[in-house]
Amino acid sequence: MSVIRQPEVLGRTTRRRVVGVTAALSAAALETVGVGLWFGLVVGSRTTATALAGLGVLFCGALLRTGVFGATVTDLETLVEPIRLGAALVLTAGWIGWLFVAELIGGGVGIAVGTAVLAGILTGQFALERRAFRPRPGDGATVVPGLVLAAGASVLLTTAWFFDGGLSSPPLSLGLTTVVVEITALHVGILVFALSSAFAHQRRLQRALDP
To answer: Does residue 46 sit within a domain?
Structure first.
């Protein structure tokens, strides 16, 4: 029988897609804010205070992002489930390990090696979340999201390390205030990272929500 003749089936499919897209955008926003703030705190002049503050921001972002996935695919009601905490810790360690490896090696090679390490960790972390919150046979649904998000992170790091320029608008007069809009290479890197995060989370959430 055609799906058109089964409106309840079409309705369930549409609801799953809407939930998947909404959750993916929420997860991507949390990931971008958490990683972006942490990255901004530690990539420049690093002190003990900024390192600790960045670590706290990164972990909170990871915990909330993991919570979005769990709340979307299960009925868990708390952020402090041991499995959720473990998944957030793995994610936090993955981002720290990525930057550490990239800085240790340095240059383009460091970015490439760090990206490969991050892709592996993200793939494993996504699989851990999927196994914890929605156990089902593995179907490779975590590999592509891990690669996409790691690629976005590599663009972010590349723009921070190798590009200093930017574009500025002419001065805009707003009453007594003059405003200049400036777009730097880092802004572009953050945008690319946000888009890659949205795509990665949409793909894995949609696969997790499929019956």
So the answer is: yes
202 within a domain of the structure (yes/no): yes
Do the beta carbons of residue 22 and residue 16 sit within 8 Å?
Answer: no
Calpha distance 122→57 (Å, rounded): 18
In this prediction, residue 170 has a pLDDT band, given cuts at 50, 70 and 90, of low
State the Cα–Cα distance between residues 71 and 32, nearest whole angstrom. Answer: 19
The residues that bridge with 178 in the sheet, in sequence order, are: 173
Domains: count for the chain: 1
Q: What range defines the domain where residue 135 resides?
A: 12-209
In a domain, 51, yes or no: yes
3-state helix, strand, coil in the chain (%, to 5): 75, 5, 20
pTM above 0.70, yes or no: yes
Backbone angles phi, psi at 166, to 5 degrees: -175, 180
